[in-house]
Amino acid sequence: MRGAPTILHLDMDAFYASAEQAAKPSLRGKPVIVGGLGPRGVVATASYEARVFGVHSAMAMAQARRLCPNAAFLIPRFALYRKVSDKVMALLHTLSPLVEPLSLDEAFVDLEAGGTEPTVEAARAVAERLRADIRAVTGLTGSVGLAGSKMLAKIGSEQAKPDGLVVIEPGTERDLLGPMSVRTLPGVGPATAEALRRAGIHTVAETREAGEAELVRLLGRAHGASLFLMAEGRDERPVVAERDAKSISVEDTFDVDLTDRTRVQLEIARLADRCVRRLREAGRSGRTVVIKVRRYDFSTLTRSETLRGPTDDPAVVREAAARLIDGVDTTAGVRLLGVGVSGLADYTQEDLFAQAAQAAQAAQAAQAAQAAQAAQAARAAQTPQAAHEAVADAGRPPGPERPEPVGEGAGEASEDAEKPRRWLPGSDVRHAEYGAGWVQGSGVGRVTVRFEEPWSPPGRVRTFSVDDPALQPADPLPLLRPDADADAAADSGEAEGADPPPGAVADSAPGKAADPQADRGVAADLAPEEIADSDPGGTPAPDAGEGIGPGPDEAEGRDGQAPEPGGGSEHAPAPAGGGVSP
């Protein structure tokens, strides 16, 4: 741990909710809750106006609706959050080459590596300028902690919320930490806290007084020794610019427990394919396939199989996952399924056996198709013209080359294509006549849209048929007017405390509220992979705590769920069940 406060921790204030308020003028200053809107959804982030009512991250969405029924309940829009996050991270990289992102809205920065003088005054000036630049470039606010270690810097940013700066000066660490709960220390989750509670240890001061030997006896050598150093205020962890992913995984939580074995197997196959898509997008391969099953009673188990070598073949991962789920009893009901790949590598060692099996299956399919075409040729040989056409068809390679004639089953596809579109609360739309807007709610064949832009006054609400051809999904708009955004980027190096440029959303982030809790969410307002990867069309959304193989301190009940459509009416928001309350 360094003496000077040169480790900076930035945490954006209620990031998802603040971004939604900045994007939707009608929601500024009002409670906004972002997360999974289904029966088993959880809160990703709540605005400070909603926190006054007791709503907080990781809370069940059903409970949040009871506590704050008049809030705006919105789905996450990760495309927007990533764009804002990229701008924030770019500002951090101007301060130092050592930037350690923890999530979309949180990061550590080693200021000394960037040339900042190791003094309290110099570090404070850099932090103040950073906060002003973030507001100017994004229209949002962030809280900053400065200290000599990562642990203390994070504690400082939590104390600074919202929109503040806390500097923990050398020599004050022990007094600051002493009265805090032991859960404040990194690595202390519910299981560790319970073990300490049984020993009569509740605060950091009591942890320190217990001594290293007692902590080792209670928690084991590695964990106990590390916890004692943390209680002393010593944290030697460096800021690491690049954090290599250990695994890639996807999870889905279901509105209704799955009991049908065939459905479980189909969901595992679908998850395996999604996992491989992520694996390939990351340019990685993996050696170990893992499945995760959470039963109806919240009991969770994992099963894994290690392959002969790393692979990114969807068939290989799918077959391994299928073998693993075959060994799990799911008859009592499953609320969550997950598939992951660990043991990542930057290359792929092809599975020759799987390739041979696939080639054999393809050859068998080709032979069967050719035999069927030959039989058809023989049956059609009743007339010279028919025989000529059938023989010509039999000579073609197998595979669909011409559209199938319309028959009894053809109507099913067209019927699916004509199903009403789903309009999820908070999603972006554009109307041919009224322009850009966002969905307030939908149901009973209608969708309610408020037409406004981030830089416009609160807009008017209109209601349309869900299949109105003039209404189409759209990409998120930037939080600042494009010309103002360019001006802000050019002026980001001005003196600290400068007012945001014209068009900046000065009131997008609420002021301090009577919420005693720090802005702590599930995995820092959820990791970027979570919820965003939900398949359109009504498939379940990933679990909020996405990942395979939970540790002993993983909190239960963190299931994210895709939002459901609610009701809508003319010039009025949708009623409870989906969308925004008036």
In short:
The chain has 582 residues and is an alpha+beta fold.
N-end to C-end Cα span: 51 Å
Enumerate how many helices there are, as a single number: 17
* Morphology call: globular
Main sheet: which strands, in order across?
5-6-1-7-8
Structural class: alpha+beta
CA-atom Rg in angstroms? 28 Å
Amount of helix: 25-40%
Uncertain segments are 381-418, 493-578
β-strand number: 17
The residue-averaged pLDDT reads 78
Fraction of residues in β-strands: 15-25%
Largest sheet: 5 strands, mixed
Give a description of the structure.
The protein is an alpha+beta fold and 582 residues long. Helices cover 34% and strands 19% of the residues. It is built from 17 helices and 17 strands. It has helices at residues 15-23, 48-51, 61-67, 78-93, 120-138, 150-160, 173-177, 190-198, 204-210, 212-219, 221-231, 261-281, 314-326, 352-379, 384-394, 410-417, 482-490, and strands at 7-12, 32-35, 43-46, 72-74, 99-103, 106-110, 142-147, 165-167, 247-258, 285-295, 300-311, 334-345, 428-431, 435-443, 446-451, 460-465, 471-473. Strands 5-6-1-7-8 form a five-stranded mixed sheet. A hairpin with a 3-residue loop joins strand 13 (428-431) and strand 14. Helix 5 runs antiparallel to helix 17, helix 12 (261-281) runs antiparallel to helix 13 (314-326) and helix 14 (352-379) runs antiparallel to helix 15. The radius of gyration is 28 Å and the shape is globular.
